[in-house]
Design a protein that fits this description.
171 residues, 46% strand
């Protein structure tokens, strides 16, 4: 698909099975946005992705990517293991929940910084070995052992009250 436009309104949008959208995509619907419904789904937004207007949240399963363009996500719920990759574009997420799910961030060629502004609560967090910063600003819980492989700066919290718990350990 070349262009995907949504209009303001309380309705849900589901993109499952995979695909590519060429132009920048900003979702204006306020109902749930579903990107993928299984770990093998792959959706690429070549021109960038913005789901911050989706007040009901963004559900993600599988791989969601942009092509060296910004990915701005509102509150995310992982419905299966997921990977987010913005290449050299920034990756900004309001919050992430998915206590039974794994979240992979960026790829080995990525240089776009990653910021999760609110809580992150996931089974596992994987970061690719590449030169980008990771900021987990709101605290949260990561159940399994975590190794940050990114070679940029790691920020855990941006407030005195932020607490991030690594139940399985932090390497």
């Amino acid at each position: 698909v070349n262009t995907l436009n949504t209009f303001a309104g309380d309705y849900a949008v589901s993109l499952v099975g995979g695909g590519t959208i060429t132009t920048a995509t900003a979702f204006a619907n306020t109902g749930v946005l579903t990107l993928g419904d299984g770990v093998t789904d792959e959706i690429t937004f070549v021109g960038g992705l913005d789901s911050t207007a989706v007040t009901a949240g963004t559900q993600i399963a599988g791989a969601v990517a942009t092509t060296n363009t910004a990915m701005n996500l509102g509150a995310v719920t992982l419905t299966a293991d997921a990977g987010l990759d913005s290449g050299n574009g920034t990756l900004d997420i309001a919050s992430v929940t998915g206590l039974a799910q794994r979240l992979a961030l960026q790829s080995i060629t990525s240089e776009g910084d990653v910021t999760i502004a609110g809580d992150i609560s996931v089974l596992a967090l994987d970061t690719a070995a590449a030169g980008y910063d990771v900021s987990l600003n709101g605290g949260g819980t990561i159940t399994e052992d975590t190794t940050f492989r990114n070679t940029g700066v790691l920020n855990l919290g941006n407030d005195a009250g932020d607490v991030t718990v690594f139940n399985g350990g932090l390497d």
